[in-house]
Task: inverse folding
DNA sequence: TTCACTGCAAAACGTTTGCAAACAG
DNA sequence: CTGTTTGCAAACGTTTTGCAGTGAA
């Protein structure tokens, strides 16, 4: 557990948003100007592999990272692009049932208009 | 409707698999050696926008394309990476219900071990 | 003292762009 | 004719790599 890894983990823990590697890099650089992008990616990958954090694919832009809490899925606003979490505990069993064989997991992103964007229209 | 577009559409129509842009390019090049990668992408994007074909994101590798039939979701084998289609007509309504607001759509990829790989183990 | 991790630069990857020439309608 | 599309090459953004040097244990 290096200072760099600690810093990156702290940034993700204290963020209320999902962050791209670039955003993590920017925020990390504020506190540790010598940090390198490769180090950010190394650590994000290591922590993702270790299950500490989640990597979230975002269509048409860079992947996002978040501190992993309970398993959950994502809502993505088609207007502003912001991600939100949603918990669908029934879904995995329901999918297993529908598919007929055992499944190891799934990736789901639901597209919607978030409450803030809905107001603006 | 240029010859290039026709060729690309034909390749996708006659393929029983989901193809990456690279694979489409390779197959197209067999029949039309002068074709360029950019042309393949131009046409895949144009046909995707027009709704003729579907672009499928594959975690950790290049996007795949398929001739669009009815709306469906994807199964991805965690062992060999192959994609299969699955129809879950009840899902969108069920997600709408769970989320509480209207949703415009969703992306779902289910992870499993395909029948062929299951046999091998 | 050891070995994993860092920072850097450069490469890899999938994809898009700018442009002049070619072509379809 | 006119506008769209092609082929090419070069650029793009994101992510990974190779490597010498650093720092944690």
Result:
């Amino acid at each position: 557990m290096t200072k760099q890894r600690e810093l990156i983990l702290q940034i993700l823990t204290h963020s209320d948003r999902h962050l791209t590697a670039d955003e993590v890099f920017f925020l990390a650089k504020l506190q540790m100007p010598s940090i390198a992008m490769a180090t950010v990616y190394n650590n994000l990958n290591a922590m993702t592999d270790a299950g500490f954090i989640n990597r979230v694919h975002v269509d048409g832009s860079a992947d996002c990272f978040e501190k992993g809490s309970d398993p959950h899925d994502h809502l993505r606003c088609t207007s502003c692009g912001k991600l939100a979490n949603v918990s669908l505990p029934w879904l995995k069993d329901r999918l297993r049932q529908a598919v007929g064989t055992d499944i190891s997991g799934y990736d789901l992103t639901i597209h919607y208009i978030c409450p803030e964007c809905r107001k603006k229209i």
